[in-house]
Design a protein that fits this description.
The complex is a heterodimer of chains A (about 475) and B (about 200). In chain A, about 30% of the residues lie in helices and about 15% in strands. With about 475 residues, chain A is α/β, with parallel strands linked by helices. A five-stranded parallel beta sheet of chain A has the order 5-4-3-6-7. A five-stranded parallel beta sheet of chain A has the order 17-16-15-18-19. In chain A, helix 6 packs parallel to helix 8 and helix 12 runs parallel beside helix 15. The longest helix of chain A has 17 residues. In chain A, about 60% of the residues are buried. With about 200 residues, chain B is α/β, with parallel strands linked by helices. Chain B is built from eight helices and seven strands; from the N terminus they run E-H-H-E-H-E-H-E-H-E-E-E-H-H-H. In chain B, a hairpin with a 5-residue loop joins strand 6 and strand 7. Chain B starts with 5 loop residues before the first strand and ends with a helix. The mean pLDDT of chain B is about 95. Classes of the chains: A alpha/beta (about 475), B alpha/beta (about 200). At the A-B interface, helix 2, helix 3, helix 5 and helix 11 of A face helix 4, helix 7 and helix 8 of B.
Chain lengths: ~475, ~200
């Protein structure tokens, strides 16, 4: 049967397909964290319902955990209560929890792939919009709200209307210093933050094929910032090499069988997409956001745009408001913008490859005296790997703080926040007003760009970086 | 779930595009483990100054919009995080319907699960409502889900599209988990097929 990768994933998970109702889809993996689950478990208790498949449900704590010394008690009583509630819920309903002191703890979208829980062909949901990350493995993975978390806990299914499909076809070689993050920002800058609303994106083309799994995860992660329901990339040898031998990946004979099946998960050449976007990667530059929405983005060689040049009245007003919040004036060169803070972390860019890239930049340099910079590894495993390679030493020697794993200043639910007026170069995914702390000003960049800004104190074109 | 059939109420205009869920309910309020009580934190950073006082320049703080139960806003409303705390906060504050030219997918889904109706109208229709809500005192709209119609009784009327099944669930206030559990046989059959495949 001819079809897109999405259609194949969808079709193989149909439990029921009534004509006048949404399709009932089966969910292979449900990832749970402390913030969006307590009300769902409470709902189960009230209705006297059980968790249908605790064996397909995995939990961790990531959103509100402190990234400082883990041997100390959690100072925030409300945050601690939320974490304790997840512990109790996992115990009561028999769900595996990678708790704050476990070697596997980390951001849910970092540990799923790292443990081999995320496998091609699966449907994966989590009460977090960045669940799209897992699509990098050829899965249908999407974020859901708490009511839907409860629905999946109770039934292992979700009623869903079939989304439309969008192909983003990227050709050409990414220039040195231009990363998957810049590609993601470039796409959002082009199609807008609602450009893929109602759609599932498949990323394809030789540029995407050449991306590492880390790069593919960064790209799929940001799909939601373009409004997409999910983003996905067909699995290939890069995917298989990443997964082989991971703790929950199929082992021995089961591995060969699984791999044979995974190889069939690709879009047929005559399949139809509702929309197609083509992009030339060879002309991309490192990107920096200037406003309060990820679509407000320009190349590092560019300037803050003038709202007068906006395409519509509503865009003009949005730009003016963003510039006021960001305390920027039109036509300021991006490289003249001074920063106060640097955050290298988040489910977008806190994997080992991201930390290696940032460490290469900072090696032998000192952070600018006016900049406070921190690295928050995506998981305890990433932290250990980085430490075994000596990356922590490179960061610390140059003046960075080296923290424990969690979501941290991506959303600032814990103590890691910007103070009012502080300007931050951040490897995270959202530059919304107040996202990293009330009055804080966020500029989204790649790990290398964030690292370079920490050294120079302003945005710097890393294509001209002098490595030491 | 709370049902929604027809609602008449005062309209508050929030003339901004891309209102994200971080604005609707900032992160510091996501640590609560209850579903209730989020209304006091709705649009917190816009409603309140850093010193905690009410910001009189924000539209919801204008006395004329006190008691509004219909919010009209710009495109891509509810983008960003999947936090269901956003519709919980809007509903708890007293909103029953949100009207915008477009909504982010997860947010719109979350609204429907909470009896809060997202109504998609054209940019021109939304602009017309915003204009009227600004120029007419105590401007009210009637949102009729049964007839898929928004009207003010003063000449403005617009129809809207909504998924038939979601409309049915809202009208009847159905518990969709209960509906899925009715199909236990189908779920069990799928699981048998699935375990034969995966082993």
């Amino acid at each position: 049967m001819s079809g897109t990768l999405f259609e194949k994933l969808w079709d193989s998970h149909v439990v029921r397909e009534p004509a006048d109702r949404p399709t009932l889809l089966y969910i292979d993996l449900h990832l749970v964290h402390e913030v969006t689950s307590p009300q769902a478990f409470e709902g189960l208790r009230v209705a006297n319902r059980r968790v249908r498949r605790p064996d397909l449900t995995v939990a961790t704590v990531d959103h509100n955990v402190p990234t400082t010394d883990r041997s100390l008690p959690i100072a925030d009583p409300i945050g601690a209560k939320q974490i304790n509630t997840l512990r109790q819920n996992c115990q009561d309903f028999g769900i595996q929890l990678f708790d704050i002191d476990s070697a596997e703890q980390g951001i849910v979208h970092v540990i799923g792939p790292e443990l081999g829980l995320t496998q091609p062909g699966m449907t994966i949901v989590c009460g977090d919009s960045h669940t799209s990350t897992h699509g990098a493995f050829g899965t249908l993975a999407f974020g859901i709200g708490t009511s839907e978390v409860e629905h999946v806990l109770a039934t292992q299914c979700l009623p869903q209307n079939k989304p439309r499909t969008m192909l983003i076809d990227v050709r050409g070689e990414l220039p040195e210093g231009v990363t998957a993050k810049d590609l993601a920002l470039g796409i959002i800058g082009r199609i807008g933050t609602d450009g893929a609303t109602g759609h599932v994106i498949e990323y394809a083309g030789d540029t995407v094929r050449k991306l590492s799994m880390e790069g593919r995860m960064t790209l799929c992660n940001m799909s939601i910032e373009a409004g997409a329901r999910a983003g996905m990339i067909a699995p290939d040898e890069t995917t298989f090499a990443y997964l082989r031998g991971r703790r929950f990946a199929p082992q021995a004979n089961a591995w060969n069988e699984a791999q044979d099946h995974w190889k069939t998960l690709r879009t047929d050449s005559d399949a139809h997409f509702d929309h197609t976007v083509q992009l030339d990667a060879s002309t991309l530059e490192p990107h920096v956001t200037w406003g309060t929405s990820p679509g407000m983005v320009v190349p590092v060689t560019g300037c803050v745009p003038d709202p007068a040049a906006a395409k519509s009245e509503s865009d003009r007003r949005a730009s003016e408001r963003a510039l006021e919040y960001m305390a920027l004036t039109p036509r300021t060169r991006i490289q003249d913008i001074q920063i106060d803070r640097v955050f290298i972390g988040s489910c977008t860019n806190a994997r080992i490859e991201d930390l290696r890239a940032a460490a290469r930049i900072v090696k032998g340099y000192q952070t600018n005296s006016s900049v406070n910079a921190m690295v928050v590894p995506g998981s305890q495993a990433v932290k250990r790997a980085a430490e075994s390679e000596g990356l922590d030493r490179i960061f610390r020697d140059s003046g960075f703080e080296w923290r424990e794993a969690g979501c941290s200043m991506c959303l600032g639910m814990n103590a890691d926040i910007l103070r009012p007026g502080e300007r931050c170069a951040s490897t995270s995914n959202r530059n919304f007003e107040g996202r990293q702390g009330r009055g804080g000003r966020t500029h989204l960049v790649s790990p290398m760009m964030a690292a370079a800004a920490a050294i120079t104190g302003h945005f710097t074109d890393i294509r001209e970086w002098k490595f030491k | 779930m709370k049902s929604f059939r027809i609602h008449k109420g005062k309209v508050a205009p929030l003339d901004r595009a891309n209102v994200d869920t971080d604005q609707i309910i900032p992160k510091q309020f996501l640590k609560r483990i209850e579903r209730t009580g989020f209304g006091q934190f709705l649009f917190y950073d816009w409603r309140f100054l850093p010193n905690g006082e009410s910001d009189s320049s924000f539209v919801l703080n204008e006395p004329r919009y006190r008691g509004a139960s219909i919010l009209v806003a710009g495109k891509n409303f509810g983008c960003g995080s999947s936090r269901e705390h956003a519709p919980w906060a809007l509903a708890d504050y007293g909103f029953c319907a949100i009207i915008a030219p477009s909504f982010a997918d997860i947010f719109a889904n979350n609204c429907m699960k909470n009896g809060l109706l997202p109504v998609t109208l054209s940019e021109d229709e939304v602009s017309a409502i915003i204009e009227r809500a600004r120029s007419i005192d105590n401007y009210e709209l009637t949102v009729d889900l049964e007839r898929r119609l928004v009207a003010d009784g003063g000449g403005f009327s617009a129809s809207f599209a909504i998924d038939d099944f979601q409309r049915h669930c809202l009208l009847e206030g159905l518990d969709d988990i209960g509906l899925t559990l009715l199909h236990e046989t189908d779920i069990a059959a799928y699981e048998r097929k699935r375990s034969a495949r995966i082993g």
